[in-house]
């Protein structure tokens, strides 16, 4: 009886005015709650007898949508993390928006646009994955993941920013025109794909190095936090449901305080950036009015679940409860829960449902497999089976054991790194520059070598020379709350 309407927000960027109009239209169809999806889109469920009212209103507003289909997946980007989680990069707000404006068609393949220096937005969950070069300003790596396969291919060329849209269009056309060769084919070949690509009309240059995938380190993405003399607000909902009444008031507050955009993220949350100090109390009042809870545990925030999946949510809550009881450390891990055969989630450790018996549409005896990504990097496409055929009551213990394996791997990697250091340097005493200072509350680090330009702290400023009034740029924790820590432990260069 229910149908799902999907509305894309390219790059996860939302105009408060447009969202407000969509919410008003939804109210007319008696929709009370909405969700945000893994690909930074809006999901609305409504009854079949009300859907014509809602879609009619959307047609009047000129808003594109799909009903129970996803033929045109949203273009996702790391823009929501820009400036608050991603620092000192050439990839700015203007660059993101220029690329999105240039893509004046609706891709039928999944397109990802990401900064290389982040792990907040999945880099390789798309079919056409653009990753900003860390060495060549305004140039991009391209990694193709062929549709309906785990086959990936990294192009040996870098593409200039202004040509991303057109290259995307050409590559999509080649794949769509050759479905037998490049879609649902485990033998799909990247060299064959690019042999059909005419390079003459594009600014390209050889890639000197392959793209370096960042180690996964999920930032704490909710709460009201300070940055660059302003604040950002991240809102997470345990049940993934945002009430329309709340979102309408949020949009109105954005407009009243002259905030022209908000963002939705791949973690099914929203982020509002650029909040002025003078408006901080208004946002706190809004949260209090609707009793929006903040500061959830990290082991709850680092789960990825399929869109519109109550079964997956229930399993997540079940696992989080046991992880909390055991007080299990999950920092640096991204968990995925997959209950559907064709779905895809971003994960270091994947809990995947299947049935021991399945014939003629009848499925019996559900069990769960636990898989680990290569090197526990959720951007990697390959993995290994950690445990098979687990009934649900055994899952918490098996997940806990997979977490122990992750920590064992991480410690081994750290130890290997230290051994390499011993053989490549004659220094036996670490310099101060090899240490960072980490906030005990939110795990934000202060790097003496980099400083905090946004807070008028010059590079090279030692932590001991910071004023006693210094506080954490993220959670405003006091200076005394920082701990000196070896950067090798954090895997920071």
Describe the structure.
The protein is an alpha+beta fold. It has four domains: 2-67, Alpha-Beta Plaits, CATH 3.30.70; 86-206, no CATH class; 299-408, Sulfite Reductase Hemoprotein, domain 1, CATH 3.30.413; 432-490, Rubrerythrin, domain 2 (Single Sheet), CATH 2.20.28. Helix content is 27%, strand content 25%. The chain is built from twelve helices and 25 strands. The chain has helices at 16-28, 51-61, 93-102, 164-177, 179-182, 190-195, 244-256, 280-289, 298-301, 310-325, 395-424, 487-490; strands at residues 2-8, 13-14, 33-36, 41-47, 66-67, 76-77, 111-114, 128-132, 139-145, 152-154, 157-160, 204-206, 223-227, 230-235, 242-243, 262-264, 270-275, 303-305, 335-338, 349-359, 362-373, 383-390, 435-439, 445-446, 482-486. Strands 6, 7, 8, 9, 10, 11 and 12 form a seven-stranded mixed β-sheet that branches. A five-stranded antiparallel β-sheet has the order 5-1-4-3-15. A hairpin with a 4-residue loop joins strand 3 and strand 4. Helix 1 (16-28) runs antiparallel to helix 2 (51-61) and helix 1 (16-28) runs antiparallel to helix 7. 33% of the residues are buried.
């Amino acid at each position: 009886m229910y149908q799902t309407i999907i509305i894309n927000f390219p790059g996860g960027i939302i105009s408060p005015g447009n969202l407000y109009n969509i919410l008003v239209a939804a109210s007319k169809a008696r929709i009370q709650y909405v969700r945000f999806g893994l690909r930074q889109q809006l999901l609305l469920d409504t009854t079949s007898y009300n859907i014509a009212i809602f879609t009619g209103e959307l047609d009047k507003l000129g808003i594109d949508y799909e009903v129970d289909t996803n033929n045109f997946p949203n273009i996702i980007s790391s823009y929501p993390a820009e400036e608050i989680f991603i620092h000192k990069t050439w990839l700015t707000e203007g660059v993101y928006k220029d690329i999105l404006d240039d893509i004046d068609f609706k891709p039928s393949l999944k397109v990802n646009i990401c900064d290389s220096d982040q792990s907040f937005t999945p880099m390789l969950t798309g079919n056409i994955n653009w990753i900003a070069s860390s060495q060549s300003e305004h140039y991009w790596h391209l990694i193709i993941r062929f549709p309906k396969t785990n086959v990936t291919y990294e192009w040996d060329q870098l593409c200039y920013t202004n040509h991303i849209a057109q290259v995307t269009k050409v590559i999509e056309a080649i794949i769509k025109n050759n479905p037998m060769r490049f879609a649902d084919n485990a033998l799909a070949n990247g060299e064959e794909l690019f042999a059909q690509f005419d390079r003459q009309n594009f600014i390209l240059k050889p890639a000197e190095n392959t793209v370096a995938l960042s180690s996964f380190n999920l930032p704490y993405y909710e709460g009201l936090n300070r940055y660059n003399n302003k604040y950002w607000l991240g809102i997470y909902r345990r049940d993934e449901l945002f009430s329309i009444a709340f979102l309408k008031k949020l949009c109105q507050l954005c407009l009243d305080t002259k905030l022209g955009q908000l963002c939705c993220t791949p973690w099914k949350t929203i982020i509002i950036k650029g909040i002025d100090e003078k408006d901080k109390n208004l946002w706190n009042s809004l949260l209090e009015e609707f009793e929006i809870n903040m500061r959830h545990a990290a082991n709850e925030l680092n789960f990825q679940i399929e869109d519109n999946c109550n079964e997956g949510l229930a399993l997540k809550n079940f696992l989080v409860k046991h992880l909390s009881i055991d007080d299990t450390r999950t920092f640096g891990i991204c968990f995925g829960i997959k209950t559907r055969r064709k779905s895809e989630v971003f994960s270091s450790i994947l809990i995947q449902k299947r049935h021991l018996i399945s014939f003629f549409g009848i499925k019996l005896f559900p069990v769960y497999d636990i898989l680990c990504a290569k090197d526990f990097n959720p951007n990697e496409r390959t993995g290994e089976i950690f445990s098979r055929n687990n009934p649900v009551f055994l899952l918490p213990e098996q997940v806990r054991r997979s977490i122990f394996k992750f920590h064992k791997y991480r410690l081994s990697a750290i130890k290997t790194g230290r051994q390499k250091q011993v053989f490549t340097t004659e220094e036996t005493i670490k310099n101060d520059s090899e240490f960072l200072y980490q906030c005990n509350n939110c795990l934000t680090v202060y790097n003496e070598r980099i400083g905090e330009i946004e807070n008028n702290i010059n590079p090279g400023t030692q932590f001991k020379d910071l004023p006693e009034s210094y506080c954490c740029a993220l959670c405003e924790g006091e200076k005394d709350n920082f701990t000196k820590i070896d950067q090798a432990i954090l895997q920071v260069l």
